[in-house]
Amino acid sequence: MTDATLTTDSAVSAAKATPRFAARPATADDLDLIHRELMNVIDESPHYNAEFKAFEKGRLTLSYLRMLQRQDPWHVMALISDGRVGGALISGPEFGAIFRYWSWIFPAFRQTRLGMHGMRAFDEHFDNGRFHKAYTFVRPDNEVALALLRRYGYEQTTILRNHIFGQDYCLMEKPYTKATGGYDHGVGAGRIGRLIGRLNELLGR
Question: Residue 199: inside a domain, yes or no?
Answer without folding.
Answer: no
